[in-house]
């Protein structure tokens, strides 16, 4: 029988103590940004005691909006170059640099000076440093300067490039959630790309913080780097500045860059290069990020900044709605009706109602709100075509709604150990509530992912009942000087005051009367130059250029309209007719005789014609007509089928600005009056109804511009002959120069410009593209969908196939 072994008490005690100590070491609590080893008391004493220095004028450099405040959270050092001071550096300082919870300073080469456009730019010209690449010496000396001058003044230190955007509010929240007394090196960890792997002299467990999206160091880490700059500069293994900084931190601070997958979203690097952040900013990656990199085009820095400011404004509006709801709820509980004024009570009652799809109560059947059905297309009972493509505005609205819904769903996902991703909208409904907002009912396909405990990935469906509520009306007064509307800072008692006092009252009329002043606000892309006042615009002469071949009866109607609207009212206009030969006998001579009659009757108005003895080509005609005018003249290209009223002339003058805007009005085009009115001529050309005609949204033939702007794009393509295409070609030329030019296209429906119906004949000699355009125009002008539907029903009722 085996003998039981006896345990020595000393052995048992040693085993128990060892087991407990081992258990404690394995389960020791640490921060999510855990360093390699713990910070010692000696480390903290070293980090808290900066190198000795004498105070200098640099102490106040770059304090910006925080001057005089006790902001001591973050110091930002931006590494830049002399050639970027006037562009990238200035853009950084004017945008996120103004909101940093601390101080920002820009570091450049020796001899660098602040640009004239931003003389107060906080700039340090590092001695014995140039702008050569790679900027390793600049980077290390910048960090040394930061420690020597500001090491005891701030908790955190950020090394940034001049092509990164930082969200100051989110950065502050992030840093205040981390213990700054620890030795930390925070950023997006990297080990080099595939080609560089194994060539950066990194050990298997070493990494570096990628410099582009920004690198954050605690006071201890910065101290260790700054005190060993000379060694790190003498022992460079690669040409990558961020790799060498990471190697220096690893050697002297003993810590790597934060090994955390989450850092890829916090410090977001877009791999698209120069194309990064040029498109839509409504993406979850951008919304989640604290830093965005790279922003090579400094104009995008302002664009991104404005976008985030817009998000803040939207958040503030939502907070105001929440306050309105609280007020309404408290007033209801207290049963106090006299707490608010009548106007305040109306606003609170309208805006303070909790969200819901039943807030709108129709009085009768005609006020019922119809729902549009959404799937891959939109099916609407209020449209001629019941199935249509989802428009860009609705698509963008849906994306905004889905993104906000998913943010709410995943608000506490990290604590719960799961995440829910959006896949697609299976179907939905939407409608516009005129008083409360936009309503949505969405059936969404989601993916539920659980990564804590028993892991699983399951597709789920979820219904969402949503309302994007309208906010209150914002009232703003704009003061415009009569002599120089572009100078908004020097207004006097004679200024025009445009305001909205009561949206539902008499101010609507006032707003319409002062609409020109609103259009010419200095903040508008159509703002006038200092040399052009609003009155001078109204005095501009409109030079009509009309190509014509035959069609004498139509030309006679055009002349009558020109007399009635322009000549009899003494409008400042001129007329240039480009006459082509006609197949009809004596037609050309009758046209010329009519023009000469106008010249005799109105000698004070410039009325001319040019005869071209060649085949009709609209591009050629308009180009010839434009040569008879100066660069400063306003040209209006028109067709003989157009009729107009006086207000159309006002819009042409207002929306056509030299060097700023070309005007492409959307003309109303009549359907065949035989089908609409059962007669050959329309009784009223200006009856703007869905039954009478349609808006020519894809017609670009009627337009106005200054000749100088026409010359900028090279004029018309005179190689285009026959019907159509020359107008689209010119429009595309203006579109192409818009990114590099201040010139913009103003396009809007004009109810005072009407294209009178006439039969369209497509010449068999037209090219394939022109023939397709001609046939499409002929089909569009035939009839409305409602009329065709009525006719088909009538034929079916009468037994006609």
UniProtKB/TrEMBL annotation:
<keyword id="KW-0812">Transmembrane</keyword>
<feature type="region of interest" description="Disordered">
    <location>
        <begin position="46"/>
        <end position="68"/>
    </location>
</feature>
<keyword id="KW-0472">Membrane</keyword>
<comment type="similarity">
    <text>Belongs to the chondroitin N-acetylgalactosaminyltransferase family.</text>
</comment>
<keyword id="KW-0808">Transferase</keyword>
<feature type="transmembrane region" description="Helical">
    <location>
        <begin position="7"/>
        <end position="26"/>
    </location>
</feature>
<protein>
    <recommendedName>
        <fullName>Hexosyltransferase</fullName>
        <ecNumber>2.4.1.-</ecNumber>
    </recommendedName>
</protein>
<keyword id="KW-0333">Golgi apparatus</keyword>
<keyword id="KW-0735">Signal-anchor</keyword>
<dbReference type="GO" id="GO:0047238">
    <property type="term" value="F:glucuronosyl-N-acetylgalactosaminyl-proteoglycan 4-beta-N-acetylgalactosaminyltransferase activity"/>
</dbReference>
<dbReference type="GO" id="GO:0032580">
    <property type="term" value="C:Golgi cisterna membrane"/>
</dbReference>
<dbReference type="InterPro" id="IPR051227">
    <property type="entry name" value="CS_glycosyltransferase"/>
</dbReference>
<keyword id="KW-0325">Glycoprotein</keyword>
<keyword id="KW-1133">Transmembrane helix</keyword>
<dbReference type="InterPro" id="IPR008428">
    <property type="entry name" value="Chond_GalNAc"/>
</dbReference>
<dbReference type="InterPro" id="IPR029044">
    <property type="entry name" value="Nucleotide-diphossugar_trans"/>
</dbReference>
<dbReference type="Pfam" id="PF05679">
    <property type="entry name" value="CHGN"/>
</dbReference>
């Amino acid at each position: 029988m085996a003998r039981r072994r006896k345990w020595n008490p000393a052995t048992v005690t040693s085993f128990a103590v060892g087991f407990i100590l081992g258990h404690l070491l394995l389960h020791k609590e640490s921060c999510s940004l855990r360093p390699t080893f713990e910070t010692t008391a000696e480390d903290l004493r070293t980090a808290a005691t900066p190198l000795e220095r004498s105070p200098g004028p640099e102490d106040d450099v770059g304090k910006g909006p925080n001057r005089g405040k006790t902001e001591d959270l973050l110091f930002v050092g931006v590494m830049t170059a002399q050639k970027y001071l006037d562009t990238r550096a200035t853009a950084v300082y004017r945008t996120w640099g103004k909101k940093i919870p601390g101080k920002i300073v820009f570091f450049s080469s020796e001899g660098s000076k602040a640009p004239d456009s931003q003389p107060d730019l906080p700039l340090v010209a590092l001695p014995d440093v140039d702008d050569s690449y790679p900027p390793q010496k600049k980077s290390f000396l910048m960090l040394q300067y930061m420690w020597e001058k500001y090491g005891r003044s701030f908790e955190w230190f950020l090394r940034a490039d001049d092509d990164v955007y930082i969200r100051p509010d989110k950065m502050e929240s992030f840093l205040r959630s981390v213990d700054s007394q620890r030795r930390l090196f925070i950023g997006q960890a990297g080990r080099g790309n595939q080609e560089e792997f194994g060539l950066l002299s990194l050990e298997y467990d070493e990494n570096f913080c990628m410099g582009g999206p920004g690198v954050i160091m605690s006071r201890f880490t910065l101290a260790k780097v700054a005190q060993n700059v000379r060694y790190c500069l003498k022992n460079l293994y690669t040409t990558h500045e961020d790799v060498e900084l990471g190697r220096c931190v690893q050697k002297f601070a003993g810590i790597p860059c934060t090994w955390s997958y989450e850092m890829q979203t916090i410090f977001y690097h877009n791999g698209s290069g120069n194309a990064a952040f040029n498109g839509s900013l409504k993406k979850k990656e951008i919304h989640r990020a604290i830093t965005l990199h790279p922003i090579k085009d400094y104009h995008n820095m302002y664009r991104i900044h404005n976008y985030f400011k817009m998000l803040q404004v939207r958040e503030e509006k939502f907070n105001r709605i929440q306050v309105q709801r609280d007020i309404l709820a408290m007033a209801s509980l207290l049963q106090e009706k006299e707490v608010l004024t009548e106007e305040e009570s109306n606003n609170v009652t309208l805006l303070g109602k909790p969200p819901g799809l039943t807030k709108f109560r129709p009085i009768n059947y005609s006020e019922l709100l119809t729902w549009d059905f959404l799937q891959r297309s939109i099916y609407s009972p209020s449209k001629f075509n019941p199935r249509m493509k989802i428009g860009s505005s609705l698509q963008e609205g849906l994306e905004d709604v889905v993104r906000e819904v998913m943010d709410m769903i995943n608000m506490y996902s990290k604590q719960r150990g799961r995440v829910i991703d959006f896949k697609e909208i299976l179907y939905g409904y939407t409608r516009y509530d005129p008083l409360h907002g936009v309503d949505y009912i969405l059936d969404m396909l989601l993916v539920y992912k659980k990564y804590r405990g028993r892991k699983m990935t399951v597709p789920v469906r979820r219904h969402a009942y949503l309302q994007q509520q309208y906010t209150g009306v914002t009232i703003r007064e704009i003061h415009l000087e009569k002599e120089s509307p572009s100078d908004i800072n020097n207004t006097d008692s004679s200024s025009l005051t445009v305001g909205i006092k009561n949206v539902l009252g008499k101010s609507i009329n006032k707003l319409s009367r002062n609409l020109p002043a609103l259009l010419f606000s200095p903040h508008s892309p159509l703002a006038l130059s200092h040399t052009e006042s609003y009155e001078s615009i109204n005095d501009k002469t409109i030079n009509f250029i009309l190509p014509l071949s035959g069609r004498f009866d139509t030309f006679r109607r055009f002349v009558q309209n020109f007399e009635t609207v322009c000549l009899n009212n003494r409008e400042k206009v001129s007329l240039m007719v480009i006459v082509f030969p006609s197949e009809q006998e004596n037609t050309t001579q009758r046209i010329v005789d009519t023009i000469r009659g106008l010249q005799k009757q109105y000698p004070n108005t410039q009325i001319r014609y040019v005869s071209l003895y060649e085949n009709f080509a609209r591009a050629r005609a308009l180009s010839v007509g434009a040569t008879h005018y100066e660069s400063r003249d306003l040209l209006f290209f028109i067709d003989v089928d157009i009729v107009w009223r006086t207000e159309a002339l006002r819009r042409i003058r207002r929306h056509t600005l030299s060097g700023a805007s070309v005007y492409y009005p959307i003309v109303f085009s009549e359907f065949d009056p035989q089908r609409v009115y059962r007669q050959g001529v329309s009784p009223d050309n200006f009856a703007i109804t869905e039954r009478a005609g349609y808006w020519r949204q894809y017609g670009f033939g009627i337009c106005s511009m200054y000749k100088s702007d026409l010359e900028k794009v090279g004029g018309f393509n005179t190689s285009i002959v026959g019907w159509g295409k020359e107008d689209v070609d010119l429009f595309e030329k203006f579109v192409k120069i818009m990114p590099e030019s201040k010139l913009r296209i103003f396009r809007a429906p004009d109810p005072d410009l009407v294209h009178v119906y006439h039969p369209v004949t497509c010449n068999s000699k037209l090219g394939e593209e022109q023939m397709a355009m001609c046939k499409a125009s002929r089909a569009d002008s035939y009839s409305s969908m409602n009329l065709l539907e009525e006719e088909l029903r009538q034929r079916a009722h009468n037994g006609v196939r």
